[in-house]
Write a structure and sequence with these properties.
The complex is a heterodimer. Chain A has eleven helices and no strands. Chain A is mostly helical. In chain A, helix 3 packs parallel to helix 6, helix 7 runs antiparallel to helix 8 and helix 10 packs antiparallel against helix 11. The longest helix of chain A has about 35 residues. Chain A is about 70% helix and about 0% strand. Chain B is mainly α. In chain B, about 70% of the residues lie in helices and about 0% in strands. Chain B contains 13 helices and two strands; from the N terminus they run H-H-H-H-E-E-H-H-H-H-H-H-H-H-H. A two-stranded antiparallel ribbon of chain B has the order 1-2. Chain B is globular and about 85 Å long. The N and C termini of chain B lie close together (about 10 Å). The chains are: A mainly alpha, B mainly alpha.
Chain lengths: ~290, ~325
């Protein structure tokens, strides 16, 4: 006996064009995207560009460290080419920041979904623990964590997960509570779908709008955090270039050669601005729906 | 209302206990380090061993936390003042009093001798910044939000995004380059003493500006969002249609209603401010609380870290508490559960 396949009726649903399609209509989002793309390209192409090695010390350049034809942005207080260090530093920050934000989402999303979907005791435990971590002034939490476990890429990612996971969980929980009582969830429960399916396949995609905005903001904030840790002397270990550490090392020379700290500071600001502008543009677009 | 406040107070104390336990667990995770770090790298091994036993560092973490709490509340004597340890530490307040935070290995003194002057300096900095941030962001938030999408709104919103994209250490570098290196108008460091030749108030200008720039950018956008919401409500249209001028509609109907939501955000802002203070104090070598926490963490001064975080947490949690209560009082539609 052959299985009879019921004819599936698929009506075309009229949907508004996707967010990605409408992105070019927002000039703010495009400027932000442009800044991000600029740094991503710089980071990707760094090994193929005619740059000096980022850790090489030019003792001859040291007597005239200011920007010149050889060293476009000058050299730092150890005679290393600032342009090369900024571009190679972009590689580091553009891998660690998105990775850390993704890891925080990987922990925060399931917790928030579980809290919002199950409610009751599960919600109480997750929310209470989250509240404790959120009651910390965030930089103090970072300083204590990193100074105890030591600065490394993995430890910075761990610290970001600990510090911003609860915030993500709180947002996801709120979004889940909004959707929890809608018909499509009831329909899925009626079909006897299991809880993880409902949470990750039904609920999560419907919460994506605000989460995309939050993710952009969070990557930007993580860039700031990595910069701050570097500036406070808790950054990624030397000698490889790290923007925050570059600013820190150059501040001793600020009264003589302010450009040494200005250029890496401008690099951080432009990248963060990119993520923040993109987030704002996306938020505005999703509100116009 | 009273039972609600009581319940919130209980949860406040529980949060503080949990958070301070977390800090305790992180800083005292390896007990061998505690004795060594307290006595310093050059202390003889016998003293370290003696302290190890005196502090009962073999005990499980919760027991040690309870002991720390006992010393803090004045129920137990502080074992560090024992002359046998050769620490040369005598607290004039005695070894058993309420608020005993113990011994700071970084400053070689009682934590209480170190912490309060630092806290006062930071309160001055944060208070000044707060006094500028709140009216400034309310003004610009209302101006931007009263005509959504207008030229003023666009300009203020973009400025807001740019301001929140500049971390404190970067704006510090920019401002120092312009006003200190370029124009020589202001001092680049703020030791809060007059022997550098700069009056105290000039030393406060740049740190306060740095804090205001970063935090106001965020708050302006919050106030703006709230104002936009209110201006889209029917009662605003009614007020306009009944012939009130736009100006009085904004002032009498708009602003009042728009202030409810940002009230909590403004108080939560204090948490941000404490974070920002750490970085700002570092930029300007300001002798404050934030830089002390950083120094203590880098040095491994466990008692000082625990004391300072507890105080920072108390400030943060208390302002959140006030925010919750005030929010309920301001808005009769919200009933605290």
């Amino acid at each position: 006996m052959t299985a009879i396949e019921a004819p599936r009726i698929r009506e075309k649903i009229e949907r508004p064009p996707s967010l990605l399609r409408r992105l070019p209509t927002s000039s703010i989002a495009m400027i932000g995207l442009g800044l991000i793309v600029f740094w991503v390209l710089a980071a990707l192409l760094a090994p193929y560009m005619p740059l000096d090695p980022p850790n090489k010390q030019f003792y001859t350049a040291f007597s005239h460290p200011a920007p010149s034809a050889q060293h476009w942005l000058g050299v730092d207080n150890r005679g290393r080419d600032i342009l090369a260090r900024i571009i190679f530093g972009a590689r580091r920050v553009l891998t660690v920041a998105p990775l850390a934000a993704l890891a925080a989402y990987a922990i925060g999303c399931p917790l928030g979904l579980a809290a919002g979907y199950y409610g009751g005791k599960v919600d109480a435990v997750i929310s209470r623990v989250g509240d404790v971590i959120l009651s910390f002034p965030i930089i103090i939490l970072y300083v204590i964590l990193i100074s105890t476990i030591g600065p490394s890429i993995l430890n910075i990612i761990i610290a970001v997960v600990v510090a911003s996971g609860p915030g993500i969980a709180r947002i996801v929980r709120g979004l889940t509570l909004e959707q929890r009582h809608l018909d499509y969830v009831a329909a899925a429960e009626l079909r006897r779908e299991n809880a993880p399916f409902i949470m990750f396949v039904e609920l999560l995609p419907n919460c994506r709008g605000p989460l995309i905005t939050d993710f952009c903001l969070r990557v930007g904030y993580t860039v700031i955090t990595i910069g701050i840790l570097g500036f406070l002397g808790l950054g990624l270990p030397p000698p490889d270039p790290d923007w925050g550490t570059m600013v820190r090392e150059a501040t001793v020379m600020i009264s003589v050669h302010p450009y040494m700290s200005l250029f890496p500071a401008i690099a951080i600001v432009s990248l963060v601005l990119g993520f923040n502008l993109l987030a704002d543009g996306v938020r505005e677009l999703s509100m116009r729906e | 209302m009273i039972p609600v406040i009581a319940r919130k107070l209980v949860s406040l104390v529980l949060t503080l206990l949990a958070a301070s336990f977390l800090v305790f667990a992180v800083t005292e995770f390896s007990p061998g380090n505690v004795a060594r770090k307290t006595l310093g790298p050059y202390a003889p091994q016998e003293s370290v061993d003696l302290l190890y036993h005196k502090l009962g560092l073999n005990d499980p973490l919760p027991v040690r936390y309870a002991r720390w709490l006992g010393i803090l509340l004045g129920l137990k004597a502080d074992p560090l003042q024992d002359p046998a340890l050769k620490l040369d530490f005598v607290d004039p307040r005695g070894d058993r009093y309420f608020g005993n935070f113990g011994y700071s290995s970084l400053y070689k003194a009682s934590v209480n001798d170190v912490i309060w002057t630092r806290l006062r300096a930071t309160a001055l900095l944060a208070g000044l910044a707060f006094a500028v941030i709140v009216p400034l962001s309310m003004l610009f938030g209302v101006l931007a939000g009263m005509r959504e999408g207008g030229a003023l709104d666009r300009t203020i919103s973009v400025f807001g995004i740019v301001a929140t994209s500049i971390p404190e250490f970067a704006s510090g570098v920019f401002l120092v380059s312009i006003f200190v290196v370029g124009l020589s108008l202001l001092p680049g460091t703020s030791p809060l003493t007059t022997d550098t030749g700069w009056p105290i108030w000039t030393q406060l200008v740049l740190p306060v500006t740095v804090l205001v720039l970063y935090d106001a950018g965020y708050l302006v956008r919050m106030v703006r969002g709230s104002m936009v919401d209110v201006m889209n409500r029917p009662f605003i249209r009614t007020a306009l249609l009944k012939g009130l001028s736009f100006r009085s509609v904004v002032v009498r109907h708009g602003v009042r209603n728009a202030m409810i939501a940002p009230f909590t955000v403004i108080l939560l802002q204090i948490n941000f401010l404490i974070s920002g203070v750490v970085v700002t104090e570092m930029v300007f070598a300001y002798p404050g609380f934030g830089r002390m926490i950083l120094d203590a963490s880098l040095f491994g001064d466990i008692s000082l870290i625990e004391a300072a975080t507890l105080i920072a947490l108390m400030v943060a949690v208390t302002t959140q508490f006030i925010g919750d209560i005030g929010y309920a009082l301001l808005n009769p539609q919200i009933r605290l559960r």
